[in-house]
Amino acid sequence: MHFRHIFSALGRHRIAVCLLVLEIAFSCAVVCNALFLIGNRLELMHRSTGVDEAHLIHVGVRSVTPGSADAVMAQTRTDLAALRAIPGVVNVSVVNQVLFGDGVSFSGVSLSDDAKAPGIQVTQYLGNAQLADTLGLKLADGRRFKPDEVISYAQLESGGSSAPVIITKALANHFFPGQSALGKTIHAFGADRVVGVVERLVQPRDYGPAENYDYAMLFPVEMPYSQGRYLIRVRDASQRQTVIQGALRALKADGPLRLISPKYATTLEAARDKYYRNDRAMAWMLVGVCVLLLVVTSVGIVGLTSFWVAQRRRQIGIRRAIGATRGDIRRYFQTENFLIATLGIVLGMVLTYGLNLLLMAHYELGRLPGYYLPVGALALWVIGQLAVLGPALRAAAVPPVVATRSV
């Protein structure tokens, strides 16, 4: 194959070649960054939370006629007893926030009670002594809470109440790198002593720096139902909807006038699905953009190559007459397309890098991993070869007798 002849032929169609190169470059830049965004969204959507999502449901109850704090707390204990009596229920807790819920609760945490001491914002889960078991958390070190360590919500609100705390391994590594966190003290609601470390527990929602997503802590607090939600762990995941119906009936059967509705009750998996609904829609939209761009690029290659074949029928016939085989003609057009695609891909890689820098500056996106570039290049090469195959086969079918026809 004489590349000089190919470049000479392409030089007679500079504008068309430049447009095709730009189209391939633009497709390369957009597709590589879109695939990176899709991968990033999918990674976020499938992150582990550290809890037993498949066996968890939560039910919200809203007071219509709230009574005294003591009355609300007494009703909470009655509700907990009723919920634990439902067949298939393993654990029940009242928790101040739930994963993928509407809100998120944080406290400033540091290693000193000095107001000027450096600290970070850490999400806090407040619940009874069984909260870690209800969530299905895996203990990495230490122990769970003891029943006599639970403090009241009123004590917590009053401030300065030191309490035992369970923290995540990520938070332990942040505050106490290379050493055990057990027995150490962190300052959140007071001088809180670390009694346990769990493998993983995350924020209810994405908030703040990405590296803080795994920072969480649990406090043993007797929460009133008016300040949280009932979190229920079931034995059999297939019975979750049955347990939800039983929980709604149990809560309606005893207590003051309250808003108890199926719309306030859901599985944790359904909550996750709802929370990532927009991310999923964006991922599908980007898939559609990628497909559309690749189709347009393919159509452009097919159209331009078909036009060139029609223009060169006599030259193709001459080549066939002097001994060129069908395979030679087909390989000529495929090589021509490969060279054009390579020029477009090289330019596209530069545009890909520039577009990634723009996204990093404005949308806090990470740097595009290098392996996306060869993957994108290979995809465009394959698409280009498939797109040019039809016109190349039609060119190879041109008979030698065409060379004898007048122009």
From TrEMBL:
It is a multi-pass membrane protein. InterPro entries: ABC3_permease_C, Macrolide_Exporter_MacB. Its main location: membrane. Keywords: Cell membrane, Membrane, Transmembrane, Transmembrane helix. The keyword ATP-binding does not apply. The chain crosses the membrane at residues 282-310, 338-359, 371-389. It is found in: Cell membrane. It comes from the Bacteria. This is ABC transporter permease. Belongs to the ABC-4 integral membrane protein family. Residues 290-399 form the ABC3 transporter permease C-terminal domain.
